[in-house]
Design goal:
Elements lengths: L1 H16 L2 H34 L5 H11 L4 H12 L14 H37 L4 H11 L1 H16 L3 H7 L9 H11 L2 H34 L1
Helix pairs in contact: 1-10, 2-5, 2-6, 2-7, 3-5, 4-5, 4-8, 5-6, 5-7, 5-8, 7-10, 9-10
Length: 235
């Protein structure tokens, strides 16, 4: 109980004091996660919608693959990216290992299948309602996809939240490719792992609560945005 009480106290102190080191770690966490989410959204949203709307050979296999890859082991992804970016790997010349860019790559690989699979399901359900209308109006496929993505924007926000939550909570892959270097690649989750290994359980719990607060704040902001958008639409 004492560790829990101390962790709450430390979390409050860290937030109130505006600790610069904590701010640096939080900023990097958000930058890496936001970048990975943006990349995954640019890839995953159109691909997921295409799998839902288009009819082509191999579509079922790709859908099964996307669903299966939602469970990618983070350490396997981290090891794969590490081997690709290491000096002996094919991309070693880029010198990206142990940089935030390597962490973004690893997180993007992890969450892109999630974005694809969840988007496909959302758009497939919506397309079932509008497919007859699209056919009768001879709507081109790309136009139908854009229309469906816009109409499903509230559900798509939830899909993106799932990707955000997966990315910001990631530790295994980013630890392998980032190295948890202070002032360079240390993010919230790797800092928590480091403090736990040091036996600083109270500080680790405090950092965990700060991470939870960030996740709750982002979810609250998205919920507020959805509420405002719906209110505007009904006005």
């Amino acid at each position: 109980m004492q560790d829990f009480a101390q962790s709450f106290y430390l979390a409050g102190q860290l937030l109130i004091s505006g600790d610069p080191e904590l701010g640096e770690v939080v900023a990097l966490s958000l930058r890496v996660t936001a970048s990975a989410l943006a990349i995954s959204a640019l890839i995953g949203l159109p691909l997921g919608a295409l799998l839902a709307v288009a009819r082509f050979q191999g579509r079922t296999a790709l859908t099964v693959l996307a669903n299966a890859l939602m469970g990618l082991p983070p350490v396997v992804v981290g090891l794969t990216v590490y081997m690709l970016l290491s000096n002996a790997g094919p991309l070693g010349v880029l010198q990206l290992l142990y940089t935030p860019t390597a962490m973004i790559i690893a997180q993007s690989i992890l969450i892109t299948p999630i974005i694809i699979a969840l988007t496909r399901q959302v758009i497939a359900d919506l397309n079932a309602e509008y497919s007859e209308t699209f056919r009768s109006l001879v709507v081109p496929g790309h136009t139908a996809i854009i229309a469906l993505l816009w109409d499903a924007r509230f559900s798509i926000l939830t899909v993106l939240l799932a990707g955000f939550g997966r990315a910001i909570a990631e530790v295994g892959a980013v630890m392998i490719v980032g190295g948890n270097i202070n002032h360079v690649t240390r993010v919230m989750t790797t800092a928590i792992a480091l403090e736990t290994s040091r036996g600083e359980l109270a500080l680790a719990l405090a950092l965990g609560m700060v991470l939870l607060l960030i996740a709750l704040s982002v979810n609250g902001a998205v919920s507020l945005l959805k509420g405002v958008d719906r209110s505007t639409a009904h006005a």
